[in-house]
């Protein structure tokens, strides 16, 4: 086995401090006493920069040159990388030993501050200067300077690149991309280490009259001719551990057939100059003369070593197939760790020097530094873990299998913690269990098995997997089922009405589950692969038998059954500005049904996005142009058609009614005529939803307006504003009112609209009036400005009577529970209601405070009206619907409910009637 990492590091640290009197060790930046440690440069528009300030982060310098003038020994100038700097920079100030002046990017190690000036950056007559993380488009010149460090930077410039001259000493360039470096003019002790050196088509790196220059662990890329030339008085230089990549023969930048001569050392520079442990990659299709030394060319390393004593450990390869950061590379662990300037702190990319245990150490003294700018790393970046029997009864042996992406697993250590408080298990790849760790849980737990993978350099990565140690025993299915209501204003997770959540996680399962089969009791079923929670939406209310059957991986099976009651949840009311959903007159001929009505659930109706979780809708339905006497029924899509009606119409007539109806599980309704055909108009008014909206307070019918007492009817194309909130027991902050609208004395056929904002009249209708007939309809109208609503009729004139039957607001008393339309009473089976008589309707919940009914009068003998009110209460002086002989008249009725869940319906003294009462929903205090 190779000698320890720590021993090699100690050896190399000594080399770095002594070899050639050169050091690349970074010098700590210590601020001068009384001065800030950092100055800042940032010329972004939002940076509030100034060149006349102190260079703080809040008010940085705009230019780097301004910072040069201000920086003191021990300070660091931090340059923002999110912008460009176009002015040339000259550094002519110095730091002190141990207190350099530093110019560094203000960001991550891999970020760069961009200096775009063609004049580049010049350091002249300065000492103790550090440049870090800069990109210099115009190159860099270092003249008459000493103790200068340039690292993690890019030095460009097609004609300039890097220039070190005029007697500069102790200049170190490392971990940088350098274009055409030229070390000259009596410079001494210059070191280039761990750099990528490029020279364009034929611009070599040049050492001229610069003794003691060291090129160590660099990559020379793609030269057409000479990659490195050492000449003049450059004795005592060194070229060690470098990789020379010559240009490929098909390079269009090179002259055809030109011989590659990677390293040229002139006679004048050969004295004391060393070249060894280099790798030269040529091409089988182009002539390569690796060395020219003291005027003599050498075609191979053996001849070169025999003649000069140099290059005895060089590698010359005809191609690049095994050159670079890859398994099997010739560069791995084959360099000289004692070379002047050899960096231990990190390669070009920051990877540490590491010993590949798969490769013999062929470097000097058994060292394992790689050749070139890049170290072949272990590449340990993540750990992984698999666990067999991750779900098993206590007493079962559980085995954890750790692993990683390391290229060198032989040097790894696995520390596995089974998460139950027992000591971790330490294993290694290649041991008796090949790194696997085993454990037996003695008590139930839901634990996490965690492995820490560590290498010899101290890098650590972890991975975890959940395990379940279960009590020993049989498989026993247990599940819960709960109704789900939506969260207010949550459109991310809408909840349709009649949704249940089933949870099978309480099941006692000693072994992993193979399948979970669920029969929902409504002729639908599902299969799942794990114990979990899941949701199901029923199409109709009712009692459903849910059966859950679970099988485990060992074939055991267990079944459990429970009955769930799907019912609509109590809901608040959300008032909307009315808008038209459908008008078949504009889309087709007369319809019969069933006709699909798409409600504005979510984004279903363009231009009218509303809640995706509405439970019941309030719509105004108008039928016109019926081909015969008929009635229309509206109900939730997906459910059976109820034996009820909503709108009754004579052949050729027009009739409308408000309808409160549950929303189908798909967000749609059905509407169908009992017989014949007609045109259908549907206006959306508002909706009910659990956990949202306002509560309702029912009122005994209370007169709000009677234009007959004023003597001024509502006339065509005119509006009238009516105060509805802050009067008649309705609070001023009510959000909507429920009104019974009655039209009488109409001069011609027309429609009436009730709406909140006088400036925004909707294209809808609430009541259709006819001459000689009293007609009524109930409406829920949002409250407009100053507690008012606005009335409008399109033509003619009509008297209007408005009776308030309730309101919605934050102090409301009750929530609404919709029901599938249900018939409560029909006097056609019990006998007519005589003039002045009252019929009592039962069947409502005993705790109901109010009810939403569809009340229909038929077989009427004389004009009159019906009034619905709480059973046992006082008969109010207002009507719920107006009756006409020969007509079947329905109306949407909202009324208080009396004790025992009963409603009374009074027949006026006009004539006898049959009364049909259908339940649409009810209000309760919960």
Please characterize this protein's 3D structure.
- With 926 residues, the chain is mostly beta strands.
- It has a 10-stranded parallel beta sheet, with helices on one face. The protein has a 10-stranded parallel beta sheet with strand order 3-6-9-12-15-18-21-24-27-30, with no helix packed on it.
- It has 4 helices and 70 strands.
- The longest helix has 14 residues, at 5-18.
What layout of secondary structure does this protein have?
Layout: H1 5-18, E1 38-41, H2 64-70, E2 76-79, E3 84-85, E4 89-91, E5 101-105, E6 113-115, E7 121-124, E8 127-132, E9 134-136, E10 140-143, E11 146-151, E12 154-155, E13 162-165, E14 169-174, E15 177-179, E16 182-183, E17 191-193, E18 196-198, E19 205-208, E20 214-216, E21 219-223, E22 226-231, E23 238-240, E24 243-246, E25 261-265, E26 274-276, E27 279-281, E28 291-293, E29 296-298, H3 301-308, E30 315-317, E31 383-388, E32 391-393, E33 397-404, E34 413-417, E35 425-427, E36 437-440, E37 445-454, E38 460-470, E39 480-483, E40 499-503, E41 513-519, E42 525-528, E43 533-537, E44 542-552, E45 557-566, E46 572-583, E47 595-598, E48 616-624, E49 630-636, E50 647-649, E51 654-662, E52 668-673, E53 679-689, E54 695-706, H4 707-710, E55 714-715, E56 719-723, E57 736-744, E58 750-755, E59 767-769, E60 775-782, E61 788-793, E62 797-809, E63 815-826, E64 838-841, E65 848-858, E66 864-870, E67 881-883, E68 889-896, E69 903-907, E70 914-924
Parallel strand pairs: 1-2, 2-5, 3-6, 4-7, 5-8, 6-9, 7-10, 8-11, 9-12, 10-13, 11-14, 12-15, 13-16, 14-17, 15-18, 16-19, 17-20, 18-21, 19-22, 20-23, 21-24, 22-25, 23-26, 24-27, 25-28, 27-30, 32-38
Antiparallel strand pairs: 28-29, 31-33, 33-36, 34-35, 34-37, 37-38, 39-40, 40-43, 41-42, 41-44, 44-45, 46-53, 47-52, 48-51, 48-53, 49-50, 49-52, 54-62, 55-62, 56-61, 57-60, 57-62, 58-59, 58-61, 63-70, 64-69, 65-68, 65-70, 66-67, 66-69
């Amino acid at each position: 086995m190779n000698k320890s990492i720590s021993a090699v590091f100690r050896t190399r640290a000594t080399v770095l401090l002594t070899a050639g009197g050169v050091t690349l060790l970074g010098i700590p930046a210590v601020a001068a006493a009384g001065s800030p440690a950092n100055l800042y440069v940032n010329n972004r528009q939002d940076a509030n920069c100034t060149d006349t300030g102190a260079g703080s982060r809040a008010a940085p310098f705009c230019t780097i040159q301004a910072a040069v003038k201000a920086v003191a020994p021990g300070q660091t100038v931090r340059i923002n990388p999110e912008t460009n700097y176009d002015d040339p920079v000259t550094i002519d100030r110095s730091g002190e030993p141990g207190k350099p002046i530093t110019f560094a990017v203000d960001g991550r190690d891999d970020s760069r501050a961009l200096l775009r000036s063609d004049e580049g950056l010049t350091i002249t007559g300065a000492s103790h200067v550090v440049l870090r993380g800069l990109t210099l488009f115009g190159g860099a010149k270092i003249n008459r300077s000493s103790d200068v460090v340039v690292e993690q930077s890019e030095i460009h410039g097609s004609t300039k690149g890097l220039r070190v001259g005029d007697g500069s000493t102790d200049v170190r360039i490392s971990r940088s991309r350098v274009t055409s470096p030229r070390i000259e003019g009596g410079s001494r002790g210059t070191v280039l280490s761990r750099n990528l050196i490029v020279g364009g088509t034929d611009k070599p790196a040049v050492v001229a009259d610069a003794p003691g220059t060291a090129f160590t662990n660099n990559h020379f890329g793609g030269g057409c001719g000479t990659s490195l030339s050492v000449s003049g008085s450059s004795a005592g230089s060194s070229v060690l551990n470098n990789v020379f990549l010559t240009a490929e023969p098909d390079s269009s930048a090179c002259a055809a057939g030109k011989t590659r001569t990677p390293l040229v050392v002139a006679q004048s520079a050969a004295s004391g100059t060393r070249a060894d442990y280099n790798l030269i990659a040529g091409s089988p299709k182009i002539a390569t003369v690796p060395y020219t030394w003291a005027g003599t060319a050498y075609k191979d390393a053996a001849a070169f070593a025999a003649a000069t004593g140099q290059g005895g450990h060089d590698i010359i390869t005809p191609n690049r197939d095994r050159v670079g950061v890859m398994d099997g590379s010739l560069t791995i662990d084959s360099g000289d760790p004692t070379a002047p300037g050899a960096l231990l702190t990190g390669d070009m990319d920051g990877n540490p020097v590491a010993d590949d245990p798969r490769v013999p150490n062929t470097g000097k003294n058994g060292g394992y530094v790689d050749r070139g700018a890049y170290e072949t790393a272990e590449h340990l970046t993540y750990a992984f873990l698999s666990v067999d029997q991750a779900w098993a009864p206590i007493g079962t042996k559980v085995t954890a299998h750790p692993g990683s992406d390391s290229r060198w697993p032989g040097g790894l250590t696995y520390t596995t913690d089974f998460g139950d408080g027992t000591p971790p298990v330490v294993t290694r790849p290649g041991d008796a269990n090949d790194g696997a760790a085993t454990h037996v849980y003695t008590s139930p737990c839901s634990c996490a098995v965690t492995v820490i993978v560590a290498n010899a350099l101290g890098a650590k990565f972890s991975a975890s997997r959940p395990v379940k140690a279960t009590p020993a025993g049989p498989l026993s299915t247990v599940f819960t089922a709960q109704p789900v209501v939506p969260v207010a204003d949550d459109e991310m997770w809408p909840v349709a009405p009649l949704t249940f959540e089933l949870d099978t996680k309480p099941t006692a399962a000693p072994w992993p589950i193979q399948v979970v089969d669920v029969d929902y009791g409504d002729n639908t079923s599902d299969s799942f692969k794990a114990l979990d929670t899941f949701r199901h939406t029923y199409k109709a209310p009712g009692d459903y038998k849910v059966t859950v059957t679970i099988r485990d991986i060992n074939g055991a099976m267990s079944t459990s059954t429970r009955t769930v009651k799907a019912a609509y949840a109590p809901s608040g009311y959300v008032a909307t500005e009315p808008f038209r959903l459908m008008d078949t007159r504009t889309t087709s001929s007369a319809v019969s049904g069933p006709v699909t009505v798409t409600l504005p659930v979510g984004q279903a109706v363009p231009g009218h996005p509303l809640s995706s979780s509405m439970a019941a809708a309030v719509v105004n339905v108008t039928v016109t142009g019926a081909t015969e006497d008929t009635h229309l029924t509206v109900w939730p899509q997906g459910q059976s058609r109820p034996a009820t009606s909503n709108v009754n119409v004579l052949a050729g007539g027009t009739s409308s009614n408000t309808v409160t109806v549950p929303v189908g599980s798909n967000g749609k309704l059905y509407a169908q005529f009992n017989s014949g055909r007609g045109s259908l108009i549907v206006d959306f008014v508002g909706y009910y939803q659990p956990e949202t909206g306002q509560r309702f307070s029912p009122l005994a019918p209370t007169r709000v307006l009677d234009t007959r007492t004023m003597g001024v009817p509502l006339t065509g194309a005119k509006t009238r504003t009516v105060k509805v909130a802050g009067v008649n027991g309705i609070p001023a902050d009510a959000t909507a009112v429920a009104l019974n609208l009655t039209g009488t004395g109409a001069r011609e056929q027309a429609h009436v609209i009730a709406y909140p904002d006088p400036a925004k009249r909707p294209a809808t209708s609430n009541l259709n009036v006819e001459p000689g007939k009293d007609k009524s309809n109930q409406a829920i109208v949002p409250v407009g400005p100053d507690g008012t609503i606005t009335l409008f009729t399109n033509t003619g004139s009509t008297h209007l009577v408005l009776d308030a039957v309730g309101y919605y607001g934050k102090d409301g008393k009750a929530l609404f529970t919709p029901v599938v339309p249900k018939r409560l009473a029909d006097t056609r089976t019990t006998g007519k209601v005589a003039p002045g008589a009252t019929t009592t309707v039962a069947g409502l919940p005993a705790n109901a405070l109010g009810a939403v009914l569809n009340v229909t009068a038929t077989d009427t003998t004389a004009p009159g009206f019906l009034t619905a009110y709480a059973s046992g209460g006082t008969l109010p002086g207002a009507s719920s619907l107006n009756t006409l002989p020969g007509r079947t008249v329905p109306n949407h009725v909202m009324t208080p409910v009396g004790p025992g869940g009963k409603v009374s319906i009074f027949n006026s003294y006009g004539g006898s009637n049959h009364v049909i009462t259908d339940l649409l929903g009810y209000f309760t205090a919960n």
